[in-house]
Amino acid sequence: MRRLLATALLVTSLVACGARTGPRQSDEAGTNPPPPPPPPGDFGPTPVPDMRPTPPPDSTPPSSGRDYVIDDLQLPRDQNQAAMLGFDYDGDGLPDNAFGGILAGLSGVLQGVDVYESTRLSVAAGDNILLVRVAANNFVNDSNVALTLWQGAPFPCCGDRTSYAACRSQGKSTCFSGNFPFKIASGGSLLRGAIASSSLAVSGSSLLMQMSLGGSAMQIRLRRPRVTARVGNLELTNGRITGGIPQSEISNSVIPAIAVLVDRLVNDPNTPQATRDQVLNLFDRNKDQRITAAEVRDNALIKTFLSGDVDVDGDGQLELTLGVGFNAIRAVIP
Ligand SMILES: [Ca+2]
Ligand SMILES: [Ca+2]
Ligand SMILES: [Ca+2]
Question: Would you say residue 20 has pLDDT above 50?
Answer without folding.
Answer: no
